[in-house]
């Protein structure tokens, strides 16, 4: 919110800039910011499918799946950490780099764009929303996910933390997304699954948010999402309903 107030103050001081902004950034078209992993695409499902297969292949017990999922932590832990943890626990002969490549390749291969998610994005776009993906991660990896799944065709643009030089929850990344779409951040909505990166970031940027709970309870006392939903399609419907 602080960021938005500061920008508004700056714009207010310079009348020429204010006029340019009125022309360039239409205030009435709403910006829809969306996370990528476990919001637009089911990364958790893709990782779990690979993990089950891998544990079976090396003869590890099935109950080690929970351990492996916790090491991955929804992709927050890097693939290198996962590879090292696997090598150490099972005394594997695979090199770390081979494991990292296998994990990344397998997750990528298993990611699919749900056609109903594509439909929901198309409907939102038809009714005037501008969908922009904002994701933390490596540019090469995240961009490949967007393009290989065909998600790129349903988005106006995307911002990846590595190339932007700033990560969620820093509100600057949402300002960059708004700039790319040539829109104002005021009135935007954000849909995401991470309490800290997505909802904390939206709170800091002063935008409304929908949290995808994925079976979890909200436990952060410092801020809260505007709405909660059990999937991205329901979340898009909530955002669209907010305009009427
Ligand atoms: Mg996410």
Description:
- It is a single chain.
- The protein is of the alpha/beta class and 244 residues long.
- It has two domains: 2-41 and 112-241, 3-Layer(aba) Sandwich (Rossmann fold); 43-110, no CATH class.
- It is 53% helix and 11% strand.
- The protein is built from twelve helices and six strands.
- It has a six-stranded parallel β-sheet, with helices on both faces.
- Strand 4, helix 11 (195-205) and strand 5 (208-212) form a beta-alpha-beta unit.
- Helix 3 packs across helix 6.
- The protein is elongated and about 55 Å long.
- Bound molecules: magnesium ion.
- The site of magnesium ion (MG) has 7 residues, from loops.
- This is Hydrolase of the HAD superfamily.
- Pfam families: Hydrolase (PF00702).
The helix content is: 40-55%
Overall form: elongated
Outline the biggest β-sheet: 6 strands, parallel
**What's the alpha carbon Rg, rounded to whole Å?**
20 Å
| Distinct ligands, ions and cofactors found in the model | magnesium ion
Name of the CATH first level of the largest domain: Alpha Beta
Total strand segments? 6
Question: How many separate domains?
Answer: 2
What's the SSE pattern? HHEHHHHHEHEHHEHEEH
Instruction: Name the poorly predicted regions.
Output: 1-27
Output the CATH topology of the largest domain.
Answer: Rossmann fold
Assess the beta-strand content as a share of residues. 5-15%
CATH architecture of the largest domain: 3-Layer(aba) Sandwich
Query: What structural category arises from helix and sheet content?
Result: alpha/beta
Query: Roughly how many Å apart are the termini?
Result: 24 Å
Number of helices: 12
Q: Indicate the mean pLDDT.
A: 90
Identify the CATH homologous superfamily of the largest domain: HAD superfamily/HAD-like
